[in-house]
Amino acid sequence: MASWKSIPLHNKILGVLVLGAIAGVTANLTVGGENIQGFVSNVTEPIGRMWLGALIMVVIPLILSTLALGVAGLGDLKTLGRIGLVTILGFLLLTALSTTLGLTIMNVVKPGAGLDPAVTQKLMETYQGEVQGAMGLADKVFGIDLFVKIVPRNPIQAMANGEMLAVIFFALMIGVAMTIVSREKAEPMLKFLESLGHIVIAIIELVMKIAPLGVFCLIFSVTARFGYDLLLQLLKYVVTVFGSMLVFTVVVYPLVIKFIARRNPVEFFKKSRIVMLTAFSTSSSNATLPTTMRVGQEDLKFPKEIAGFVLPLGATMNMNGTALFEGATVLFLAQVFGIDLSFGSQIIVVLMSVITAIGVAGIPGGSIPLLMMVLGIVGVPMEGIAIILGVDRILDMCRTTLNVLGDLVTASIVERFEKS
Ligand code: ASP
């Protein structure tokens, strides 16, 4: 028998993911979701959150060092402009494609049309409190302020508040400035950032050593507490959204990888396994970024500057799965409320999903406040979000997986364009 040490990390994570899910579902069905609550809140969830915290802890220094070095490594503003353009176009293209696919499938399957009004009513009552909280956030996170805040007055404060777009802007500016000043003047900062990058990676390697424990606890917590009766009632919706994401993953990504990036899709997915598993178990693009960076550079062999530029940007700005989920959910809720969204309104849903996905924080449930905003814009009652909140975590795990895969796919597109 293979010893624990000799098993590759991705297999360990996959193993505990399955074990944790089985243990959680069993506990839920035998002991009951309510009774297991204490154990989950006091044991597995705190451990899971500490592991997640350890990953997120290094995200700001990681973004700062890799983005600044990535930009400096590009050498000049012309190259930065070219790569920046291809990157942003790649993000937008994939996100628009995924949302359109989600909406199309929703239009065909119509999972919201047959939902029992009694179920709708009960869900609205149960999740009302959470909706209020998210509504407050929805007001705060979007609007012109989101754009104004991209330029931080106080970068330290932006870092402390985890305002990722502002941190990205600051890191980009440092990178740009390093290409402007003389080599001699930039050298100490380059060395410092390089050293910071190495140290951060060493921390990530340590943290990933206990990934099996963290993943087990996270999955156990989610599955033990989950309301399976709710899942049954919303099964058609969950399956439709999941199915759309699956189609995007097994059809669209491979086509893009093969024909645009000119890489072997099977090999690409094999090497990305651990990234997908980490995203799935953490539901956080930010928490996955350290792993995405490592795999991008070491396994997929993206040039350092491209990985350093595209991946940190993507973790915040490129969310294919989230945009698909947003579009599909708006349509689902419209169907539930018997609102017939015209073709024009659906185009607005696509546009808004693509734009808001850029502003979504890469954390569990990050898209909920922005999704509410899109609902409001096309005239679907925002409170309707209560209907899906109970099953959101499951979909969050899936959409986060797409979100980070999309970053790797975009990096491979950028690499191809640079080569040619
Ligand atoms: N959890 C997602 C992410 O981190 C964001 C979301 O859609 O809620 O990518």
Verbal overview:
- This protein has helices at residues 9-30, 33-57, 59-74, 77-109, 117-126, 128-141, 144-148, 155-160, 164-180, 183-209, 211-225, 228-233, 235-260, 265-271, 273-282, 285-299, 304-317, 320-336, 343-359, 368-377, 386-389, 392-419.
- With 420 residues, it is mainly α.
- The radius of gyration is 21 Å and the shape is globular.
- Helix 13 runs antiparallel to helix 18 (320-336), helix 16 (285-299) packs antiparallel against helix 17 (304-317) and helix 16 (285-299) runs parallel beside helix 22.
- The longest helix has 33 residues, at 77-109.
- The protein has one domain (9-419): Proton glutamate symport protein (Orthogonal Bundle).
- The structure holds aspartic acid (ASP).
- Residues 283-285, 319, 322, 360, 362-367, 396, 399-400, 403 line the site of aspartic acid.
- The site of aspartic acid (ASP) has 16 residues, from helix 22.
Shape: globular
CATH class group:
Mainly Alpha
- Label the CATH architecture: Orthogonal Bundle
Ligands bound, unique: aspartic acid
Which parts are unreliable, with pLDDT below 50 for 5 consecutive residues or more? none
The number of helical runs is 22
Question: Nutshell version of this structure?
Answer:
It contains 22 helices and no strands. The chain has 420 residues and is mainly alpha-helical. Helix 1 (9-30) packs parallel to helix 11, helix 2 runs antiparallel to helix 11 (211-225) and helix 19 runs antiparallel to helix 20 (368-377).
